[in-house]
Specification:
mainly alpha; Sodium/glucose cotransporter; two-stranded antiparallel sheet; 21 helices
Length: about 475
């Protein structure tokens, strides 16, 4: 990188930390302020933080577009629009009204302490920022010529500094800043590509047929797999946290609906520039399709601004998921155990904030360990989502109806699908292919459906009424 581009990166990092520290002095004195910004999250902040948090896998998006073309929209965009719309219409207002803090908090209320702890352990894995820390680490390692270890520490440390002090408010302020940068970065790249290679229409007409095929050369079954995986949206802790922090149920619903529009615009920007990369470049590392296209056509300083746009896209996800992981470990596991052992009634108190801050260090250690152990962004996504989601999805959705639920059956409903998915995953890796060609998500979800049908959730005499 040109030294002027490196200077731009330095200015970005400094600005990010400064914005994160602004107005964060009193956050730690009020737990609800620290965890949810006092439930005052306005519509603009809601949109900015939800949109930015959703795109941490931007390098993977470029890779898939370079390899398979417009198929990217059909597997990484359309399914999430569908389930995001369902979430907005059916769940957003309800989550805002019940006033819980997190998904494990939600499980604790509906199913009891054990289910709350189990769900927290699942969320701790699901919300790990490891894939996104790894993305930044690889990017910094490549363009700044530093070791991956130092790049990972730099990426994680920058976010932890302001989260430690400012909590959720710091996440929101920095996400608004990064929202602007991520859109600006890709608008710049698209504009230069248009000038350099001609209009998108003329460019697309010269691409291989597979790159304008919705299936991208894959089967219909492959595309449908991604629709099922997109059900992750229903148990996404970022969605839940934003709805819980919204200043009204209307803000929660509108925020998701408007975010869908911004996601569509950003997908249009990124997929089009990814197609330009395919048209213009022959590269051996498609993961770097976006940065390499920028390096090819952008002058110094402008290239630095684009790389800042990519970093902003990823780091907004790192700080959001890092904070959620810290809350999950510090409050939903350690604090719950502490208040239970002390015989206290679980409620918000000042011991939460120090627990969450300790959780930041645990989150950082686990994320770094995962990033080093499994140095593949796609494998980290795949493994965590396909294994954990089947254990959370059905029990979570059941809480929005009136059920009579046996607490022991709920634990089975949460843990057995995850165990089956893990066994399936191990068998697939040992045998070089999954049994019957089914991805681990499917046997896990099928197990969940079978248990819910046959375990007598609605027929046992030993029942606990779950409020709707």
């Amino acid at each position: 990188m040109h030294y002027l581009d490196i200077l731009v990166l330095g200015v970005y990092a400094a600005a990010l930390v400064i914005i994160g520290f602004i107005r964060s002095g009193n956050s730690r004195s009020n737990p609800e302020e620290y965890l949810l910004m006092g439930r005052r999250l306005s519509l603009p902040g809601f949109i900015a933080t939800l949109v930015t948090t959703w795109y941490g896998g931007i390098l993977g998006l470029g890779e898939n577009t370079y390899l398979y073309g417009v198929q990217t929209w059909f597997i990484f965009a359309l399914p999430y629009y569908v389930f995001g719309l369902i979430f907005a219409l059916l769940l957003a207002k309800r989550i805002s009204k019940v006033k819980f803090i997190s998904i494990p908090d939600h499980f604790h209320h509906h199913y009891g302490r054990s289910a709350g702890i189990v769900s927290a352990l699942f969320i701790l894995v699901l919300a790990s920022p490891a894939p996104y820390i790894l993305s930044i680490g690889i990017l910094l390692q490549t363009f700044l010529d530093i070791s991956l270890g130092w790049a990972l520490i730099l990426a994680l440390g920058t976010s932890m500094i302001y989260i430690w002090t400012g909590g959720f408010g710091a996440v929101i302020r920095t996400d608004i800043f990064q929202f602007i940068l991520m859109y600006a970065g890709f608008i710049i790249l698209l504009g230069f590509a248009w000038c350099e290679y001609g209009s998108p229409i003329s460019m697309i007409s010269q691409l291989p047929e597979t790159h304008i095929d919705p299936l991208g050369g894959m089967s219909v079954q492959y595309i449908l797999v991604w629709f099922f995986i997109a059900m992750w949206t229903f148990v996404d802790p970022g969605f839940y946290q934003r709805c819980a922090a919204a200043n009204s149920p209307v803000t929660a619903k509108k925020g998701i609906l408007i975010s869908l529009l911004f996601w569509f615009i950003f997908d249009l920007l990124t997929i089009t520039t990814g197609l330009y990369a395919k048209f213009a470049l022959e590269i051996s590392a498609p993961l770097f399709a976006f940065p390499l296209l920028g390096m090819e056509i952008l002058p110094p300083i402008i290239f630095g601004l684009f790389i800042v746009g990519i970093l902003a896209t990823i780091m907004s996800t790192v700080d959001s998921l890092g904070f959620i992981s810290a809350i999950t470990f510090g409050r939903d596991i350690m604090w719950r155990i502490q208040v239970s052992d002390a015989g206290k009634t679980p409620d918000i108190d000042r011991t939460m904030t120090p627990m969450v801050q300790k959780g930041l260090f645990v989150m950082a250690f686990l994320a770094l360990a995962l990033a080093v152990t499994i140095p593949s962004v796609v494998r980290l996504w795949y493994m965590t989502g396909s294994i954990i989601v089947p254990g959370l999805l059905l029990p979570f959705l059941m809480t929005f109806r009136t059920h009579h639920v046996n607490s022991m059956n709920i634990i089975q409903l949460m843990t057995l699908p995850v165990m089956i998915a893990i066994i399936w995953f191990i068998m697939g890796n040992l045998n070089g292919g999954y049994p019957f060609g089914l991805e681990p998500f499917y046997p896990g979800l099928l197990t969940s459906l079978i248990i819910s049908s046959l375990s007598g959730l609605n027929g046992s005499r030993d029942r606990t009424k779950i409020p709707g």
